[in-house]
Amino acid sequence: NAGVTQTPKFQVLKTGQSMTLQCAQDMNHNSMYWYRQDPGMGLRLIYYSASEGTTDKGEVPNGYNVSRLNKREFSLRLESAAPSQTSVYFCASSELTGGPAYEQYFGPGTRLTVT
Amino acid sequence: ILNVEQSPQSLHVQEGDSTNFTCSFPSSNFYALHWYRWETAKSPEALFVMTLNGDEKKKGRISATLNTKEGYSYLYIKGSQPEDSATYLCAPWADKAAGNKLTFGGGTRVLVKP
Question: How many helices (H) and strands (E) does chain A have?
Fold first, then answer.
């Protein structure tokens, strides 16, 4: 049982390049989330998917798109990377419809640098 | 966007001492409060999920209390050990009108000195 996995672990992009961050979970969770972590700012929600087939914006969605490919996989795409998107990105998942009493399980993170 | 404040931002604790810190959040539209422990170079891991006013949760030497009426939660570490060094994040869950999701505070960074 791998839990939540993310690829890649590290990535360096040039301004304007695009890339997709991959996330998968094997816990049969309905809800999945993408966060970014910046120094002194904790975790900020980018997008989330309460269930397969649905996605919603979080606190900082600008410059990102997401795809809930199936129940296991939730990808985050940067269409035209900017230096402000340099961050550590975490994917997370939670049970059922992601209600308030269900803890979130986090992946290992992707460290992205945009030059 | 919810205003979630954690204080202090960081603290140094001598091994064996006990400590506590605070998470403040809006008391209206409260559903649940999550606490996560985040060690350096690792992923956040859930400590507690608290839903009821007056809730007290305990895991080993770490415990938490919740006051939903005044909008705060305390996390306590009894007899701190070096392995307790981590950032502790709190995250309230608001209702759908405010965004049906967790909003994380900035965290309290705890360093336990041997």
Answer: 0, 11
